[in-house]
């Protein structure tokens, strides 16, 4: 009796299950500032939503969840708009380049192979690095870490770049080229992998832009909001794959989840946040790796899945 | 006109005589399909369709539902570098029905195991589909791929053959009543379908009937579909606006709740 027929997905779903999935992913989104696309899309496919519809409707859902999350973080003073907008500009340029790269790869016939390998390697690298680093952070004193970072060659190069400005909310002085270039980099990867890029953007902000973890979460959500608005309209216009009813149920669940998430996020320490996110990323990586190593149940698949 | 009509009849007769299973004159069969249309409203979650009728008492019944023919392109999974399972190219299945559900009686379920040759000659099952279908590129292993294709469709509930799926009622004279339930999956595509019933005796079809049934969206799903497919950009913008509004609303509710405490 809790079933609802979704015309764009072309299948019926249990409202309670969808609502719970939205709540769970929204909670994670609020805590870590990731869109959660890398978790939600596989969950939706599991309940019988076609892969293309799952990804597009998830973008629509993230629009709502990240609006709610950005607002909550903005009130807590956690959104660096200046940094966010610069990353966004870079992200749009990178996304456009990434889509072209994918077209060329598809033409060459080995796009899927590269996408999946990129996925596993990125998740593995990001997850492991964050995990190790935050584990050290939890053990060592903070002062020692900062001294170490300031002496690195990376920091010296960053300091020599032109157009240095002070980012008040993040409390860092950087060249505006940094967020622009890194935005392009994340945009390219996100377009190739077909995800919002939150789980790459967060480590980039933490490690390469040296922003404090709490500001990273709020700023990441702010940036994801714009990316997903763009993706939703594009997908609805050219592929007709946005299931609005599905998105709305997910959204009610996830906005509630995101609100709780933002509060939990504030209570946890930066290193604790990082280590939990790192574990999550590693779990998804292992799942994908197993998917590549184990023989699938059926040796055929519909177009559009990962 | 009349000339063409007779020519048509002659062609049919010749065709039937040429086919070993149709040597006996086929009896017409009356079937009742209930409900006789598939309305996919907001509460649609699959549907059970009852098919009933009368067949000669000494024959066995088989009910079949077939969707329109299509030529889907699917990704083929294989091993890359010897260890990694992933999509390796695409294959096209030509002339395969979107839906193919078979409901044989208990005796026919047995029959298709013990008398495989005669079952194949009837041409009603998955094997007949495979004969009709074509797989490109032609270099692919059609046998293995078609087997996987049926499994993929079975997982979605769009292909299937449950065993012992016909029940018989009382026998009157030389006729007996039969009924079967066609279980439609929730992901049934919209379109026209054909429901058929066959009476089978000694490896031949002695009577058959067929009814058309249409699956279409009604109510809210129909409105949303037409908006999404005919006015994609507007639909996308609306979807975004509602999402933003819902996000702001939840945010406001939460702040209100916090203030009250």
How would you sum up this structure, described in words?
The complex is a heterodimer of chains A (306) and B (261). In chain A, 75% of the residues lie in helices and 6% in strands. In chain A, a hairpin with a 4-residue loop joins β1 and β2 (11-14). By secondary structure, chain A is mostly helical. Chain A is globular, with a radius of gyration of 19 Å. The relative contact order of chain A is 0.23. By secondary structure, chain B is of the alpha+beta class. Chain B has 7 helices and 16 strands. Chain B has helices at 2-18, 106-114, 116-122, 126-132, 142-155, 220-230, 232-260; strands at 27-28, 31-34, 38-40, 47-56, 60-66, 69-70, 73-80, 84-94, 96-97, 100-104, 134-136, 159-160, 166-172, 175-184, 191-201, 204-217. In chain B, strands 1, 3, 5, 10, 12, 15 and 16 form a 7-stranded mixed sheet that branches. In chain B, β7 and β8 form a beta hairpin. Chain B is globular, with a radius of gyration of 25 Å. In chain B, 30% of the residues are buried. The chains are: A mainly alpha (306), B alpha+beta (261). Chains A and B meet through β1, α3, α5, α10 and α11 of A and β7, β8, α5, α6 and α7 of B.
- Poorly predicted regions of chain A are 143-148
Give the percentage of residues in beta strands of chain B.
Answer: 35-45%
Distance N to C terminus of chain B: 86 Å
Strand order of the largest sheet of chain A: 1-2
Number of helices of chain A: 12
Helix content of chain B: 25-40%
Shape, per Cα inertia axes of chain B: globular
Q: Whole-number radius of gyration of chain A?
A: 19 Å
Instruction: Give a short account of the largest sheet of chain A.
Output: 2 strands, antiparallel
Name the helix and strand elements of chain A from N-terminus to C-terminus, one letter apiece: EEHHHHHHHEEHHHHHE
Largest sheet entry of chain B: 7 strands, mixed
Structural class of chain B: alpha+beta
Number of strands of chain A: 5
Radius of gyration of chain B: 25 Å
